[in-house]
Amino acid sequence: TVRFRIIVEGSMNKADLIKRISQQLNIPQVLSKKIINHTFKEILEALAQNEKVTLTGFGRFSAKLTDSRIRRNPRTGEKIRAPQSVSIRFKPSKLAKQIILKLFEYRSLTR
């Protein structure tokens, strides 16, 4: 089993997401957890195969692999090899941006 951890500062973590989905769909938390873990696993596996993952109304995930390369230590001038790395990018959909903007506007009015 692959385990993932979502960290959103000050608001929601994976356990909170599991609880919310479980309550909203009226399903056991164990089932909710399996669904979430499987969803994350499938997204990561698709990204590892260099596929873009588009969730309509939410956004698009993509991954970019950077080759290892020679860098220079700015303090010593020594050449060092920077290892290969990957960055995962997320571009929210237009709809997601609009929803978040409206929620921010609503919250600022109610404060």
Describe this structure in words.
The chain has 111 residues and is of the alpha+beta class. The chain contains three helices and seven strands; from the N terminus they run ββααβββββα. It has helices spanning 14-25, 29-48, 94-110, and strands at residues 7-8, 12-13, 53-55, 59-66, 69-72, 79-82, 85-92. Strands 3-4-7 form a three-stranded antiparallel sheet. Strands 1-2 form a two-stranded antiparallel sheet. Strands 5-6 form a two-stranded antiparallel sheet. A hairpin with a 3-residue loop joins strand 3 and strand 4 (59-66). It is extended, with a radius of gyration of 19 Å. Mean pLDDT is 87; it is low at 1-8.
Mean pLDDT level: 87
Molecular shape: extended
Give me the number of helical elements: 3
Q: What is the number of strand segments?
A: 7
- Summarize the amount of helix as a percent range: 40-55%
Secondary structure class reads alpha+beta
Between the first and last Cα atoms, what is the distance in angstroms?
A: 43 Å
Describe the sheet with the most strands.
Answer: 3 strands, antiparallel
> Could you tell me the strand content as a percent range?
25-35%
Brief summary:
This protein is an alpha+beta fold and 111 residues long.
